[in-house]
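Can anyone check this?
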Amino acid sequence: MEFQSGSKVVVSKDVRISGIILNPKSSSISFSYISDRLKYETKEVSANIDKEGKFNVSFPASAILTLVTIVHGNQKTELIIEPGFSVTIMVDATNFDKTLKYSGKDSAVANFMASHVLLIGVNSDFPKAFNGLYVKNPEEYIASLKELQNKEMDFLEQHGRYLSKPFKEYWKANFKYLVYCGMLKYVHFHEMYAKISNPDSSTVLREYEVPKHVPAEFNDDYLDQLGYRNYLNLYYRWHLISNGYNPSPDKLKLEDSIKNLANANMPLMTKEYYLAYKLFSGMDIFPLEHSLKDYAEYKNSFSSSEYISAIDGKIGIRIHQSMGQDAPDFTLKSIDDKDVRLSELKGKMVFIDFWASWCAPCIAEIPFIKSLEEHYRNRDIVFVSISSDADNKKWKDAISKYKLDGVHLKDEGGSMDGKVVKLYGVTGIPAHFLIDKSGKYFKGDLPAISETNQWISVIDQLLK
């Protein structure tokens, strides 16, 4: 695999993967990857396996490097590909991870990845390990993250002999930025987990020291790394807050400060992405007029940006919602496998909560939603929770664990590719909508879910 610099134009070329699967567990093998930086949409390409166990697949790739998840039956592994990537797979599905071998032009990286999955796990396992560490004090937490990072660097040293130096640097950067993300999230999640065990606890100043250890390290070459993009989306917010900036009085002022810092300090491609992401995701939170003003500024700076089409689509949805127009109808399966259609709830107000069992901020909001449900019990309002869980069992277990009331539906598609998630323009969860008795969007900006009294004021007006 020839690593290319992100500062150069990358030409799209087909990726070609073929192979033989002995004792196949299903009739196909699938390859999925994030195809859109803003919307986090996932593309999936499948190949049929013939009676001899052979398959062949090709699909275009234009990103410098892309993480691809491979699924066959209940087995999963992953690759990092680039335009023109080509390998052949040989595997026995009865012992998938231990027998997986690659040959061909890019087999060095592919076999390194296979060993990593076998001995350590998939890339997404790395940040999941942080969840059990947030309860630690700052010193212990940072030490634990460094220990996890060192384990990955030791693995690279032991198994990456045949990898190119640029790829090794790319791999190191991947885990460096994931650790940075963990440090930037520490204050929020430490406080959240502490309050679960002790509701009277409060964040102490020394916990804000953890984000201060994270440097400003921006590099266009890593823009295709999910960890780097998540780091961008967190860095300036927690840099300001940890240095004493209070976001509560004026959240828009904080957003403007972040935008100014990004404009002054980020390299061009990183800045183009980050300001587009802030604009795109901010439309779920901030007043429409603020987003429209920012969009005019963005188009003036990046008139031919690849992100403009996605932003245009999101703005169209927000304008539709802000004008109090009809909410899109949908039908989803409930927890007891019955069809529930939104239009059948006309005559009652509907509070819609988009969430998932794996979403820590969603779980943190449960007490506030329960408070609203209790306040409006036996009134003309239905609380509908739409899950983005891909795993039915985890969805149902979470409903039971947290003793959740209301109507529970599961989106089709799972994760952030769900049918209704897209229909409502949701790009991040948790997200909330209020539908009036005639099936129209609430005309106006909704408060943060933690502002219970403000929600009661809005709902009371609509229930009159």
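Reply from J.R.: I decoded it. The chain has three domains: 13-122, 126-322, 331-463.
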